Amino acid sequence: MSLQTLAERRVSRSMMMIHLRRNTMALLRRRSDLTGKRRCASAATLPALVAVMLVCTAMQAASALEIIVPAYFYPSPGSPWGAMTAAADEAPITAIMNPGNGPGNVKDQNYVNAVNAFRAAGGRVIGYVYSSYGARPLAQVTADVDKYKTWYGIDGIFVDEMANTGPAERLNYYKSIYDHVKQVDPQWEVMGNPGTNTIEQYATWPTADRFMVFENVGSAYPGHAPSAWNAKYDSEKFVNLVHTEASAANMVDFLNLAVSRNVGGIYVTDDVMNNPWDTLPSYWQQEVDAVAQINAQLSAGDFNGDGVVDLADLDDPTLGWKARFGSDLGGGDFLDWQRRYTGPAGGAAIGLVPEPPTGCLGAVALVAASLGVTRMTCNPSTTKRKSAANGSS
Ligand SMILES: [Ca+2]
Ligand SMILES: [Ca+2]
């Protein structure tokens, strides 16, 4: 992998983590008493985890799962753009705008307003261009890219109908698009859509920052097998689109399946062919909630949002657990951290892992004592966030 690609990955990861950090407070506020109960029960497994701590280093938190919406609907009043904007502080969302099989012929103020509102709420937007599997004249593609840059404040380009085979000149065609986008704006991402598995050369050439490697009906998703080379890259490099999936339960299963398959971006809809992308799914809010829940699990213990669960998550002067204890973080969050931290023992935190059944109480009490806090128990009604208990934010 080239240094440039690595740098872009870091930019992409840091953008994701900024989004995660922005959402941390909201996510934590949404956790229920049930979650508190589950956390306290987990104290019984702590001794086993201590053994793991001794042999491992700081644990890498997984990248957040992102929703990638082909938003091929016009932003008229009451359109699904409003529902996407309303959800943008709950889960990371990138919308693909597509005014007219591309940017269209004129700047559209309704798109300006919708895009600006969605981005102000935390969403990202990339602009649709098609490439006819390498047959569309390059100048037409780059002209579309330029129109997006001139008319809209967005975050990148979505290259549809991407080829997934050689020869080198086809790869070079897509690298030319990629290079043009990076010239137009080095911050812009390029998402390529072969719609199916592709060869690794498309990633290494490079031709895109991430790839949509599945676009098909729900019934084809469980049996889908990603290319073996995908495992060498971060999950944020891969996106799946699933349409014609009527079952909300299957949708949730597919989100988890995506995580298990090293896929960082997904969208599942019950809309069907000929155009499954001209509205949001009927289970949109359930999908947003499910992604937020998955991300809360993936980021548990990573209080400073840097993608790693380590001692800084306790000690960071503003974002660390100690600094936030009693405001938006409590004993259950410490146990999250303890479960996921696998680095060397340091400070007071690790030396106090107790035996069950008083595990939760003891762990929290010992850390709390070092902070001068006296009344913490394992009762979910008291370990839940103060903000939730007070009904404030
Ligand atoms: Ca439709
Ligand atoms: Ca961290």
TrEMBL record:
<dbReference type="InterPro" id="IPR018247">
    <property type="entry name" value="EF_Hand_1_Ca_BS"/>
</dbReference>
<protein>
    <submittedName>
        <fullName>Spherulation-specific family 4</fullName>
    </submittedName>
</protein>
<dbReference type="Pfam" id="PF12138">
    <property type="entry name" value="Spherulin4"/>
</dbReference>
<dbReference type="InterPro" id="IPR021986">
    <property type="entry name" value="Spherulin4"/>
</dbReference>
